[in-house]
Amino acid sequence: MKIPNVTIQQLLEAGVHLGHKTLRWNPKMKKYIFGKRDSIHIMDLTQTLELTKVALEKIYSTVANNGKILFVSTKKQASEAIAEVAKETDQYFVNYRWLGGMLTNWGTISGSIKKMKKYEADLVAENRGFTKKELLKMSVKKDKLERSLGGIAEMKKTPDLVFIIDTNYESLAIAESVKLGIPIIAILDSNSNPENIDYPIPGNDDARRAIDLYCNLIRETINNAKSSIPAPEPKKETTQEAKDTTQGKTVQEIDREKLEQKFSKNKKETLN
User: Fold this and answer.
1) Residue 89: pLDDT band with limits 50, 70, 90
2) Given pLDDT bands bounded at 50, 70 and 90, which one contains residue 225?
3) Shared-domain flag, residues 49 and 128
4) How wide is the angle at C-alpha 152 spanned by C-alphas 149 and 155, nearest 5°?
5) Does residue 3 surpass a pLDDT of 60?
6) Contact (CB, 8 A) for 82 and 71
7) Residue 103 and residue 176: Cα distance in Å, rounded?
8) What are phi and psi of 234, to 5 degrees?
9) In three state form, how does the secondary structure of 37-76 look?
10) Mean pLDDT, the chain, integer
11) What is the pTM of this model?
12) Looking at the domain assignment, is residue 47 inside a domain?
């Protein structure tokens, strides 16, 4: 298992240790807090380092076993970063708005995805037969659906793992993942609720440098896991396929092949 090497120095430089003001903290995060400085909570980076490695190992094993990860963060600071890493690594993401039932009511959500794809097809098709007003309406509806569902448009089943930045924003995603038994990795700031998070990573969830660090580590882990997956073996020709190949030949070609095989066999016996 090859996961990126992470150091406390990297975490410090990215500002991972900086929590929120002490007045805004969640007491349930007490065990992950080292202390406070200038009325700001300081995260215990020793724990962060170890828990980050555990989370990366989970990501690696999920991808190495052909599992899929859903990245979730609708907050402005992280929305672009999680979409980028998800696209680059062929995973799924939600970065605009979590619609109720995205996981627990997949039938309805998949119906909306089909509608979005139909709009896309109608808008690019030739001889569409729609008026300019109808095309404009379709374009607006398609864009609205794409903002919320574009990142999961190719998702055929529930993901094997969910990664969340800022649990306070994504309480619905957490509730649905818990209901379906999907493991959750989450960045937990000093004002977060660690309950129901299977793989917590205590750290700053607002600073862009910290968010970029998390995403870069995950990107590298996924790429390493993908490279460890053995290439599929070449497909062996079945008896039926062999028959189909033979059927495509003329009688003369088949007879010639049989004579050549017989001649080759007799020649070997003579030499021996």
Assistant:
1) very high
2) very high
3) no
4) 140
5) yes
6) yes
7) 6
8) -60, 140
9) ECCEEEECHHHHHHHHHHHHHHHHHHHHCCCCEEEECCCH
10) 88
11) 0.81
12) yes
Task: Indicate the burial class of 120 (C-beta count within 10 angstroms; 0-12, 13-18, 19 or more).
Answer: middle
**The Cα angle at residue 209 between residues 205 and 211, in degrees rounded to 5:** 40
Q: Are 97 and 147 spatial neighbours (Cβ–Cβ below 8 Å)?
A: yes
**Residues 258 and 146 grouped into a single domain:** no
Rg of the chain, C-alpha, whole Å: 27
Going by pLDDT thresholds of 50, 70 and 90, the confidence category of residue 247 is low
Three-class SS of residue 267?
Answer: helix
* CA 62/CA 1 separation, integer angstroms: 12
- Domain count within the chain: 3
**Residue 243 above 80 pLDDT?**
no
Q: Can you say how many angstroms the Cα of residue 228 is from the centroid of all Cα atoms in its chain?
A: 17
Provide the H-helix boundaries in the chain: 8-13, 45-64, 76-88, 106-124, 132-149, 171-180, 208-228, 239-247, 251-271
CA dist 244 and 64 (Å) reads 37
Q: 116 and 247 in one domain?
A: no
Range of 111's domain?
104-157
Q: How far apart are CA 197 and CA 178, in angstroms?
A: 9
User: What six digits make up the tokens of 213?
Assistant: 């660090």
Which pLDDT tens digit goes with each residue over 24-58?
999 999 999 999 999 999 999 999 999 999 999 99
Among 134, 157, 180, which residue terminates a domain? 157
